[in-house]
Amino acid sequence: MNKKETLEIRKQFTNENCAITRICGCYVDADKQIRTELKEAFLSLPEEEIFKYYEIFRKTLSGTVGKNLLNMEFPLEQEMPDGTQAWLLKLLGSRLTDDALLEEFYEKIIHSYSYGENYYIILIHAAYDIPRRAEDGTELFDASDDTYEYLLCSICPVKLSKAGLCYNAEKNSIEDRNRDWLVEAPEAGFLFPAFNDRNTDLHSMLYYTKNPEALQPALMEEFFGCQTPLSARGQKETFQELLTEALGESCDYETVVNIHENLNELIEEKKDLPDPPTLTKPEVKNLLLQSGVSEETMEHFEEQFDITAGEKTEFLATNLTSTKTMEVRTPDVIVKVSPEKAALLETRIIDGRSYLLIQIDDQVEVNGVIIRPVTDTPAAGPEEFS
What we know:
This protein is of the alpha+beta class. It has helices at 3-10, 47-60, 84-93, 99-112, 217-223, 232-247, 253-269, 281-290, 301-308, 317-320, and strands spanning 20-28, 34-41, 69-73, 119-133, 139-160, 165-168, 173-176, 181-183, 188-192, 194-196, 199-201, 204-209, 278-279, 315-316, 326-329, 334-337, 345-350, 353-358, 364-366, 369-371.
């Protein structure tokens, strides 16, 4: 799913567009015991609660595709009659009215979700009549040929509110505030099936994580039967290792700067497209060649790519570079510069020692103090001051 398709589903979480038929959930304590359960027709809830649930559902479809929102495909074995995808289809088909399936769903989540405190599992069923679009892209709400039926799950921490003082209006006094168990924004969740090309894709799902570096591998692999993808940081670190190993002696400052400049150009060129740019093995190889890496250096690149990243790995371009800053790091010094000013830095050998040189065309500050620029004028001798 891309950004536009995700936003289209998020728009349903309002009273005007609501397509939710049923909501179920359970509250799990720190000992992984279910304390209470919820089973309701969604629109039968009090209006104040409905609006709070809308906010949770929108959060579950928020963030950056490729970082917080991960597209995952089911392996072929999970689409067999005894696979995860087939089981989720059975749960979807029940429209959350089968108590035995719901209990099994909760047990599966509790078993594989790693969290040491209280949390609330929320599961909804919805049926969205997909409006057709005119040639100019406007939606024709009175013309719909297909219905997208889906499940959305949100897993929210439940934490005790902070201790503090409050004003009691009835007593007109300041007193100790009662502490309550509050349902917070979701930490994880999923949408099944995926909404790809504005239609149902039974072979895929969308996974949400609030923290891109906390992907819950057990949940992905045991519950969904999918391979845990590289996190955003994992992609960046793998790409860095790939450059180091593949380029060897050719991995100099100018080459690395060229690679990141070309990555930033790619991101800028495709920023208005619904799908973020990705790089497969051939595209990474082409990127390096465009950045000045020689054919001779690239002779064993494909083999190194398979060893370091994996043959079928795809990198999200936005996970590999920053369009805002470039960092040059030594064990003792860190220099940050905007990518378009990278040419102000260069490496040079002087008297047999390596130096990082910074061209200075403007004022320089040290701890907020503007210092005088260094000049080539020799220091005054004693005779000049006699």
